[in-house]
Design a protein that fits this description.
heterodimer, A: 497 residues, alpha+beta, B: 339 residues, mainly alpha, 14 helices, 75% helix
C-alpha cells in the first residue's frame, strides 16, 4: 500500500497527518468507531456511553477481553493513563482540554469522564484516533514525552518494522475482534504524485491511499475505476477548502465587500476545472454529511449582485478593488483554484475587481496566518473528529472580542480575526444542545458566519483509495479511515515486483 | 625535494582553510534559518497548541534564549560532534545522517561511474576523426544532456520504464517485501558481503532508474570535457614529437594524449560527486530515494533547525574534503601544477 508523506512519529498524542492516523487506526482501537450511517459502534467500549442527568458525567463501560500487543491487559486504568497523557502532552489537547475536567476509574472496566460543561460533541470526540489507548507498561518511560518509533496498542495489527518510509504490519494473533482478512501489509511512502500514480498503474503496489495525489491523476484513476480496471473507495467527505478573508483591516473590514467576493466565486466551475468535479462545491462550513450541516448557507455565484455590492461600496465605474490572493504553492489544487477564480473575476467583474495571485509555501502561510499577513488566503481543514464542533470552533471560536474583531482565539489564529455579536454564545450553546435544537443552533451559527463572510467555503474533498482488481473493493469507515483489516486478495497479483 | 615541500605546504594550506569554510557555512545556515519565516514550535505542536505548551517546548529546545546563546550552544555541540536532535521526533541528527547519507553516496557513486563510462566512451569515440559524424554526434550528446531539465528527464524515464513498460520499480530504494541487509547502509555492498542475491537484485533494480537518469544527465559533461581536453592535448608539441618518432596514432592517443586529457576530467569528477551528495534533490524526490537531499528538503519544510543545520554542515564538510582531496591528487599527479 502506497501513500505520500513520511511518518515521523507514531505517537497518538502527536498524530495529525492523514497517513499517521490511518496507520494508528490499524494498530489500535478507539473507544468508538463511527459507522458509515453516522451511528456509534463501540470498539473498546462495551456499550454506548451513559450520560448523567446534568450531562456532566459520562460513564463508559469497557471490554474485558482486550490485550495490548505487549501482552498486558487493557482496562480502565490503561484507558485513563492514555487519556491523561493526551491531556498533558497531546498537541491537539486543545480539542479536549476545555471539556474534560477529570478522568476517573470507577472499576477495572468502567471509566468516567467528568466534564466542565455538557458537551454533545464528546461522543464524536471519543472516536478520535488521537485518543487511541496505549499500553501503560510499554509507555512507562514516556508518560510525559512522545514515543515516536513504536506503537503498542490493541489493534488488529502489530507493528513489526518501522522506518519513516516503510512500515510493516502483521496480524496480532491475540486480537479480541475479527482477525484481519490478510496476512499483513507493507505500507510504503512515495514522495510525489507521479510515483504514487505510477506505482499503482504498474501493479507495483496493490493499493493507493492519498489525499495529495494530483487532480489529473486522481481523475484518471477515477475513470479507470469506472471502466472496471481498478476499485475505487470513497470515504465520507470531511475536508473543506475555504478562503479566509482578513476582516480587521482594509479592504475587507467592510462585510459587503466580503459578501461580494463570496458571490464572485463560481464553485461549480471551479470544481469542474480544478478537479473534474471530484471536489464537490461547498457553501457551508460544516460538511453536509454531519448532523446539522446545511447545504447552502453561503450565497451562490451571482456576479450581478456582487457588482451591485461593489458599486455601493464605491467600486466599479472606473475604480477597481485589487486584492492579493495567497495560495499554498506546494498544493497544486489551491493554485488551480486561484487561477480559476482570477479568470472568473476577470471575465465577470473586470471593471470592479482584480485578483493578484501570490504563492507562498504552506509552512510560511500557517506561521503568518495568525499575524494577519494575508488579505485573502486559500486553506483547508479536516475536523479531528466527526462532529460540527470540530469545524466551527477552530474557525470561529473567540475568547476576546473587540467590536466585531476577534483579538484572541481560534478566529485570530485562523487569520480572519472575525467575530459577530452572539456568535460565541451560539457556538457554546450548540455544543450543549442535542437533536433538533442543536441543529437549529448550528444553523444559526452558519447563518451568522455566512452573513459575515470572513470565510468563503469553496469545496468539499473526500478521501479516496484505489485498489487493484485482484483485491476485494476497499472500504472506509465513517471517520474517513480505510479499513485495512478488511483488505483481502481474491486473485493473483497483477504483476510481480 | 622542493616539489615535495611545496606540495606539503599546499596541502596544509588547503586543509587549514577547510575548518574556516565549514565555520562560515555553519554560521550562515544558522542565521538564514532564523531569518526564514516559520516557527519550528508550530511545526511540532501545530499553530493551535496552547500558548503554555508552546512556551514550554520553546524553553526545552532553547529557542527562548538569545540568538547569541543559541549560536554558542550550536557551535559548542558542533565542535564536540553533537549535531543535536530533530525537533519533530527527537531522533539524533547523527542517526538521521548515518541513515540517509549512505543512500545518497551509493546513488552518487554509481551514477558517477556510469556517467564517466558513458561520457568518456562517447567523448573518446569521435577523436579518431575530428569534425566527423561521430564527433559531431558526441558534441550534440554533450550539449543535449547538459541542457536537459533533470526533473523532466526523471519523470519521462519513470513514466516509460516503470509505469508504461513496468520493467523497473517506480521509486524507493529496496523492495518493501524484503528486509534490507544489515551493515554499512550501502545496500549494494551489504548484500554482496552477506551473499544475499535476492537483496542484491532488489537493490540493483531500484538503483537503475535514478542512477541511470543521473548518469545520463552528467555524462555530457564528461563527453565535452574529454573531447576538448584531448583535442588540445593532441595539438601539443610533445605529441607531435611522439608522432615524429613513428608511433601509431593509437599509441599517441592512448599513451600521450589520454593521460594528460584525463587530469581535468578527474577534477570535474571530484566536484561532481561532491555536489551530487546534496544536489541530487530532484532525482531523489522523483524516485522517492530516501537520501540526504530528500531528508534535507523535508526538514526545511518543517523548519527542523537541527536537522537542516546538521545535514548542511555534513554535506559542506564532504564537499570541502572531496575537493581538497581531488586538488591534492591532481597536484601529485601533474608536475605542471604550481602552488
Amino acid at each position: 500500500m502506497a501513500s505520500s508523506g513520511r511518518i515521523s512519529s507514531l505517537d497518538p498524542a502527536q498524530a495529525s497527518t492523514v497517513n499517521t492516523t490511518q496507520l494508528i487506526s490499524a494498530l489500535g482501537d478507539p473507544l468508538y468507531r463511527l459507522r458509515r450511517d453516522g451511528s456509534l459502534e463501540p470498539r473498546l467500549a462495551a456499550d454506548r456511553p451513559e450520560i448523567s442527568a446534568d450531562r456532566r458525567r459520562v460513564t463508559i463501560p469497557l471490554r474485558t477481553d482486550v490485550l495490548f500487543h505487549d501482552g498486558t491487559r487493557f482496562d480502565a486504568e490503561a484507558m485513563a493513563f492514555s487519556l491523561r497523557r493526551f491531556l498533558r502532552i497531546g498537541t491537539l489537547s486543545y480539542v479536549v482540554g476545555d471539556r474534560i475536567q477529570a478522568v476517573e476509574v470507577v472499576d477495572p472496566h468502567t471509566l468516567r469522564l467528568v466534564l466542565n460543561r455538557p458537551s454533545t460533541s464528546l461522543e464524536g470526540l471519543l472516536t478520535a484516533i488521537n485518543l487511541t489507548p496505549i499500553s501503560p507498561t510499554a509507555y512507562a518511560d514516556h508518560r510525559d514525552q512522545f514515543l515516536h518509533d513504536r506503537f503498542i496498542g490493541t489493534g488488529p495489527y502489530r507493528l513489526s518494522r518501522f522506518t519513516e518510509h516503510h512500515q510493516r504490519l502483521e496480524p496480532f494473533d491475540q486480537y479480541w475482534g475479527q482477525q484481519p482478512r490478510n496476512n499483513g501489509l507493507d505500507l510504503i511512502t512515495l514522495s510525489n504524485s507521479t510515483a504514487l500514480f505510477g506505482a499503482l498503474r504498474s501493479g507495483e503496489v496493490d493499493l493507493l491511499l492519498s489525499a495529495s495525489i494530483d487532480e489529473d491523476q486522481r481523475h484518471t484513476l477515477h475513470q479507470e475505476s469506472l471502466a472496471g480496471d481498478l476499485h475505487e473507495a470513497v470515504g465520507p467527505a470531511m475536508e473543506i477548502g475555504y478562503v479566509t478573508l482578513l476582516s480587521n483591516s482594509e479592504p475587507f473590514q467592510d462585510a459587503s465587500l466580503r459578501r461580494a467576493l463570496a458571490m464572485s466565486l463560481n464553485r461549480e466551475e471551479i470544481s469542474d476545472r480544478v478537479s473534474y468535479g471530484l471536489r464537490r462545491p461547498l457553501r457551508a462550513l460544516i460538511p453536509p454529511s454531519l448532523p446539522g450541516g446545511q447545504r447552502n448557507a453561503w450565497p451562490g455565484h451571482n456576479p450581478a449582485k456582487a457588482r451591485q455590492l461593489l458599486s455601493k461600496a464605491g467600486y466599479c465605474n472606473g475604480r477597481q478593488l485589487r486584492f492579493p490572493f495567497t495560495f499554498r504553492s506546494n498544493v497544486p489544487a489551491d493554485k488551480l483554484m486561484a487561477l480559476t477564480w482570477q479568470a472568473q473575476v476577470q471575465r465577470d467583474l473586470s471593471d470592479c475587481l482584480a485578483v493578484d495571485l501570490d504563492g507562498v509555501e504552506s509552512t510560511t502561510v500557517y506561521r503568518q496566518l495568525g499575524e494577519g499577513a494575508f488579505k485573502a488566503v486559500m486553506l483547508d481543514w479536516r475536523g479531528t473528529y466527526p462532529d460540527p464542533e470540530a469545524y466551527l470552533t477552530p474557525l470561529l471560536s473567540c475568547t476576546t472580542v473587540e467590536a466585531k474583531t476577534c483579538e484572541e482565539g481560534e478566529a485570530a489564529i485562523s487569520g480572519s480575526f472575525w467575530s459577530a455579536p452572539g456568535l460565541q454564545q451560539a457556538l457554546l450553546q450548540s455544543d450543549s444542545l442535542r437533536g433538533t435544537p442543536r441543529q437549529r443552533a448550528l444553523q444559526q451559527v452558519e447563518t451568522l458566519s455566512a452573513d459575515g463572510s470572513a470565510y468563503i467555503p469553496v469545496w468539499l474533498n473526500a478521501p479516496r483509495a484505489w485498489a487493484q482488481t485482484s483485491l476485494k473493493p476497499p472500504q472506509f469507515d465513517g471517520s474517513g479511515q480505510l479499513l485495512l483489516s478488511e483488505l483481502e486478495r481474491i486473485a493473483a497479483p497483477v504483476r510481480e515486483h | 625535494m622542493g616539489r615535495a615541500r611545496d606540495l606539503a605546504r599546499y596541502s596544509a594550506t588547503r586543509l587549514g582553510l577547510a575548518p574556516l569554510m565549514l565555520w562560515l557555512i555553519a554560521t550562515l545556515v544558522f542565521l538564514l534559518l532564523r531569518v526564514a519565516p516559520g516557527d519550528p514550535v508550530d511545526a511540532v505542536l501545530g499553530s493551535r497548541a496552547p500558548a503554555a505548551a508552546k512556551a514550554a517546548m520553546r524553553a526545552r529546545l532553547g529557542l527562548d534564549q538569545s540568538l547569541l546563546e543559541q549560536y554558542w550552544s550550536y557551535l559548542n555541540g558542533l565542535i564536540h560532534g553533537d549535531l543535536g536532535q530533530a525537533l519533530i521526533n527527537q531522533e539524533a541528527v547523527r542517526t538521521i545522517i548515518s541513515r540517509t547519507l549512505p543512500a545518497s553516496l551509493e546513488l552518487s557513486v554509481v551514477a558517477l561511474m556510469a556517467a564517466a563510462l558513458i561520457g568518456l566512451s562517447i567523448g573518446f569515440s569521435g577523436i579518431a576523426k575530428p569534425e566527423g559524424k561521430i564527433d559531431f554526434a558526441g558534441r550534440l550528446y554533450g550539449l543535449g544532456t547538459y541542457a536537459l531539465p533533470p526533473f523532466w528527464v526523471a519523470m519521462l524515464v519513470q513514466l516509460v520504464f516503470a509505469v508504461s513498460l513496468g520493467w523497473l520499480p517506480v521509486g524507493g530504494r529496496f523492495p518493501p517485501s524484503l528486509l534490507p541487509p544489515d551493515g554499512s547502509g550501502f545496500y549494494l555492498l551489504d548484500s554482496l558481503l552477506a551473499g544475499d542475491w535476492q537483496a542484491l537484485r532488489g537493490t540493483i533494480r531500484h538503483l537503475v532508474l535514478p542512477a541511470g537518469t543521473l548518469a545520463l544527465l552528467l555524462s555530457g559533461t564528461f563527453t565535452t570535457a574529454l573531447r576538448l581536453n584531448l583535442r588540445r592535448t593532441l595539438r601539443g608539441d610533445y605529441v607531435e614529437a611522439a608522432r615524429s618518432r613513428g608511433l601509431s596514432e593509437r599509441q599517441v592517443i592512448v599513451r600521450h594524449g589520454l593521460p594528460n586529457a584525463l587530469l581535468p576530467v578527474l577534477t570535474i569528477a571530484g566536484i561532481t560527486v561532491a555536489s551530487l551528495i546534496g544536489g541530487a534533490l530532484l532525482i531523489e524526490v522523483t524516485f522517492s530515494w530516501p537520501g540526504i537531499a530528500l531528508r534535507l528538503q523535508e526538514a526545511i519544510n518543517q523548519r527542523d533547525y537541527p536537522v537542516v543545520q546538521g545535514i548542511v554542515v555534513v554535506i559542506a564538510a564532504l564537499v570541502v574534503l572531496v575537493s581538497v582531496a581531488v586538488d591534492l591528487l591532481v597536484a601529485a599527479l601533474d608536475p605542471r601544477v604550481r602552488y
